[in-house]
Amino acid sequence: MALDRWIALILLGICMAYGYAAWFTMDAGLAPFMQRNPIWPSTFPKVLSILGIAFSLIILLGLEKSVLKEAEIDYRRLGEYHLGQAVMLLALMVIYALCLRPLGFLISTSGFLILGSFILGERKWHIMGLVALIATLVVWYLVQEVLGIYMRPLPGFLGG
Amino acid sequence: MLEGLLIGLETAFSIKNLLMVIGGCLIGTFIGMLPGLGPMSIIAIMIPVAISMGDPSAALILLAGVYYGAIFGGSTSSILLNAPGVAGTVASSFDGYPMARQGKAGKALTIAAIASFAGGTMGAILLMVFAPALSSVALLFHSAEYFALMVVGLSAIAAFAGTGQVAKAMLMTLLGLIMATVGEGALFNLPRFTMGIMDLQSGFGFITLAMAMFALPEALFLVLKPKDLKGDEGEIKDLRITRAEAKAIAPVIGRQSLQGFFIGVLPGAGATIASFLGYAVERNIAPKAEQDEFGKGSIKGLAAPETANNAACTGSFVPLLTLGIPGSGTTAILLGALIALNVTPGPRLMIDDPQIFWAVIMSMFIGNLVLLILNLPLIPYIAKVLSVPRNYLIPFILFFTLMGAYIGQNNATELLMLVGFGVCATALKFADYPLAPLLIGFILGGMMEDNFSRSMQLYDGVSFIWERPMTLGLLVIAAILVVLPSYRARRAKARQEGVAEGD
Q1: Is A93–B415 a contact, with Cβ atoms under 8 angstroms apart?
Q2: Which residues does the UniProt record annotate as the domain DUF112 (chain B) (predicted)?
């Protein structure tokens, strides 16, 4: 089964769970005065869930023949691309998200930029460090001073 | 109209807004030149900046400038490197790249710039004429018609966006609508589908979703499959064109501005379709001798797609500004930005905030002028951005994506959602699911449900569908739009299309 049909299967599951929530769980807690309303909070989701199930079934059962075309990246041969780098960069983004508050903006951002280039194969540490530091300070200045959005610059124990 | 023009001039010619146009065009050109980064990701990245400025006219002017700049930058890399930065400029590389190979890169860039300028300016004039007319019609609409109109818009997007894969595009649209129902709706004040997670109480963040749908997958694609950015290292010189050449491309520009504009107005058909169609039409109507030149460096073959894609970009603002319904991913992002700035685009826009509407139109003229007189001479220097090593470029793109999602909400959970959705979006992109319908559905979802609920309440049930002829008519059109392409696709299964995905 091709990837697009697997995805249709997953989406079918999502639509069914969504439909279950809309049809069977939402109306129970409805206040009596709202029940006289022609439209309930669950009305629109009910319609959507049915349509969603219908269209995912159309794809899943292959009722609409998909046109084969040259994809930019062939997912069947994913291993031949730089998959490791992509996964590592994604992991780095997650780590950045988790570190942004505790470590402060300046440290986590320069770390992110340096490690990002490192993952992609850069080894000139002095240039990487300089570029990352300048970029971090400029962005922090712009966000903090020009746009006026507060971002904790340093870790808490350094008074940031 | 004259009064409106003056209001627009007054707003657009403030120092701040002029800087916005110039800055937007330059940023757009810079990033649009990088192959693999389309206008949608650039605009998604710029949105937090635009929103935090707090002034809707300035924000829209900035974002529109970025949009043109990106299309212009995309054609530069199409011509110089045969590596289109933007799907809408693929057709420009058919004749632009051969010209550059013949040492006429400077001339090709000039023709591209003039054609873009003419297309954009003509588009802006047409927009000025048609938008007020359309929006006075739209003022007669009732919420039932609005609901039906949104259904038409969404089905048109699904019908035209995917190449013959209506079911996939429809499913993506529905998924967007489903995601829009998560969180607290305005009409019921009840949290829905939050699964008890506090962070979902206010729904998914629109910027987060826009980044995850466009910026992140494009960056990941750049990581997975590095694109060769090596050009022919040729000097870009001799930017002048002769009088005979100008005469040859003038009728092409005239025809393609009109055609491109009207294609751009249709929901779902954007700059990409306009440029391919423009190229095909011009090749077919050219005299036999010139026809053979197409694909080998014909100036007409370069002028046609360049004019058409810029005119289409302008045309795509018509449904956004008059009906409040975006026809493409890019205008959907602009709509999201406007809503965040507390402006509701639609027929009331011209009455309530005429300065926004007219300032945007004026800024289109200024933007096109900026591209022609400021960017063109700078192109040889801007092209240096193509030599920035990818090892530095990609971490920065990722960082700006993260920053954009973060400064909108100041919430680190948003970043985790961004990465999660980004991975899902990349998988969807692998399987050839179009992503723009999802975002458009997400943005329209809330408005669509509100209008639907309002008409349900007014008519005490679904009877509004058959009691209002206009609603019924629009819904029938929507049904035809969905059914017809899949019927035709079934019949013309063998015919393959090589058109890249929309803009």
Answers
A1: yes
A2: 18-439
Mutation target to probe the A interface, by most A beta carbons within 10 A, among B168, B454, B464 is: B168
State the nearest Cα–Cα gap between A140 and chain B, in angstroms. 10
Please check whether residue A23 touches B, CB under 8 A. Answer: no
Residue B266, min C-alpha distance to chain A (Å): 24
The reply to whether A113 and A49 lie within a common domain is no
- What pTM did the predictor assign? 0.80
Outline where B162-270 has alpha helix (H).
Answer: 166-180, 206-210, 216-224, 243-265
The last residue of one of the domains, among A12, A35, A68, is A68
Are residue A63 and residue A104 in the same domain, yes or no?
Answer: no
* Dihedrals phi, psi of B183, to nearest 5 degrees: 105, -170
If asked whether residues A85 and A143 sit together in one domain, one would say yes
Looking at the structure, tell me whether residues A86 and A154 fall in a common domain: yes
Does the structure's ipTM exceed the value 0.90?
Answer: no
Residues of chain B in contact with residue A51, where contact means CB-CB under 8 angstroms, are 170, 174
Domain span at A59: 3-68
Q: What does the pLDDT look like over B23-56, one tens digit per residue?
A: 888 888 887 777 666 777 788 778 878 887 778 8
**Cα angle B356, B362, B364; round to 5:** 105
How many structural domains compose chain A? 2
Pair (A84, A64) in one structural domain: no
Least Cα separation, residue A155 to chain B (angstroms): 15
Residues A7, A61 within the same domain:
yes
3-class secondary-structure state, position B183: strand
Domain annotation covers residue A75: no
Mutation site for B-interface testing, chosen from A6, A11, A44, A63 by largest number of B Cβ within 10 Å: A44
> Which of B174, B389, B430 lies closest to A3 in CB terms?
B430
Chain A contact present for B190, CB below 8 A = yes
Contact B227, B35 (CB under 8 A): yes
Is the residue at A53 inside a domain?
yes
For residues B437 and B169, the answer to whether their CB atoms sit within 8 Å is yes
Which helix (H) or strand (E) segment holds residue B235: the answer is: none
Instruction: Write out chain A's pLDDT in tens, 160 residues.
Output: 678 888 899 999 999 999 998 888 877 777 777 777 788 888 888 899 999 999 899 888 877 666 555 566 677 777 777 888 889 999 999 999 888 888 888 888 899 999 998 888 888 888 888 888 998 888 888 777 766 677 777 776 666 5
- A38 with A100, same domain: the answer is no
The two tokens of residue A80 are: 């031949």
Tokens of B237: 């010189």
Whether residues A151 and A87 fall in one domain: yes
Report domain extents, chain B.
2-227+240-491
